[in-house]
Specification:
The protein has 17 helices and 10 strands. By secondary structure, it is α/β, with parallel strands linked by helices. One of its GO terms (cellular component) is mitochondrion.
């Protein structure tokens, strides 16, 4: 155990075989990320990156249910309302970790078995290898809590096929199992029952190259039979998604869905109408801008958005409705898309001067 024994239990950092292994260890809380966990992972990741005897880094979640269901947003909301620094520091340190994973010089293997949302996406999707299983449940549901798909969502979502990322970001649609691989979010698919063997085989490699690691992953991927013969769950809807979600405004996307009128389009319309209007507008712009930015530029932009959300109404109201009172009926302000002006949206993207996130 490391020297911070109290909290060291939340994340385990171990050298095993040829690898550094990070285990998110809060299974009862679906391995949700805390500031303390981020503060332990980041320096260790940097050390392993420099260590000539560490050839790869593996990250996984404890328990059967989740890889990581996100950041501990209830705590962040409470801290923000009490004007404590946590809301500034948490996002800053989390995004710095996301960038470190995106630029990591060692192969980084995320075993995204179980629920993978929000902050859990941030500590996996920017790594070189992402392994999904039949238990993987991926979503970025932030527009439903008055936030936006952060942790680099503005970078990876618009780079998915067609307008799939825009659809996932605005609706919070959940992808399961092999579909997480088919969507391009995971790089491999492995049966959950074989994950332990896969990990053992990776750890047993002797001074492996990237190719050696990829070969082991490929072998397990090829052997997996689960859902192999099914097609991508959204395949029949991709033309609709591409046409409806290619608009430059949320109002136009809604109009496109109304005009389409198919059961699928109307279902998405129902979902979007429940989301925070402010979140929908900042998210669409975040993805449009992020599509041509580097990951670092995106994270700087997202940090600005995160701080503006802390100052606003909808995030705290979303946390209340979904996580505290659990009445699932947030009262958004403004409640109507038309009332969210261009100027309102612009304010979310304003630079923070000396408080901006820098790398």
């Amino acid at each position: 155990m490391s020297k911070h024994t109290e909290a060291a239990g939340e994340v385990l950092l171990e050298r095993k075989g040829c690898a550094g292994v990070i285990t998110l260890n809060r299974p009862k809380l679906l391995n949700a990320l805390t500031q303390n966990m981020i503060r332990q992972i980041y320096p260790q990741l940097k050390k392993w990156e420099q260590d000539p005897d560490t050839f790869l880094i593996i990250i996984k979640g404890a328990g059967e249910k989740a890889f990581c269901a996100g950041g501990d947003i209830k705590v962040i909301s409470e801290a923000s309302k009490a004007k404590q620094r946590l809301a500034q520091d948490f996002f800053r340190e989390e995004y710095i970790l996301n960038n470190a994973i995106g630029s990591c010089q060692k192969p980084y293997v995320a075993l995204i078995d179980g629920i993978t949302m929000g902050g859990g996406v941030g500590v996996s999707v920017h790594g070189q290898f992402r392994v999904a299983t039949e238990r993987t449940l991926f979503a970025m549901p932030e527009t439903g809590i008055g936030l936006f798909p952060d942790v680099g969502g503005g970078y990876f979502l618009p780079r998915l096929q067609g307008k799939l990322g825009y659809f996932l970001a605005l609706t919070g649609f959940r992808l399961k199992g092999r579909d997480v691989y088919r969507a391009g979010i995971a790089t491999h698919f492995v049966d959950s029952g074989k994950l332990h063997m896969l990990e053992e085989d990776l750890l047993a490699l002797n001074s492996p190259s990237e190719e050696n690691i990829a070969h082991v992953l490929e072998t397990y991927h090829t052997e997996s039979k689960i859902d192999r013969d099914k097609s991508f769950i959204l395949v029949e809807h991709m033309d609709k998604i591409n046409s409806c979600f290619s608009a430059n405004t949320v109002e136009q996307i809604i109009q496109n869905l109304q005009q389409d009128g198919s059961p699928f389009a109307l279902e998405q319309l129902k979902v979007i109408n429940k989301m925070s209007p402010t979140s929908l507008k900042i998210t669409l712009r975040q993805l449009m801008e992020g599509s041509s930015k580097t990951l670092q530029e995106v994270l700087t932009m997202e940090y600005r958005l995160s701080q503006a959300c802390m100052e606003g109404h909808d995030f705290h109201e979303g946390v209340r409705a979904v996580l505290i009172d659990k009445d699932q009926s947030p009262k958004w302000k403004p409640a109507d898309l038309q009332e969210v002006t261009k100027e309102d949206v612009n304010n979310y993207f304003k630079p923070l001067g000396s408080n901006d996130l820098e790398f």
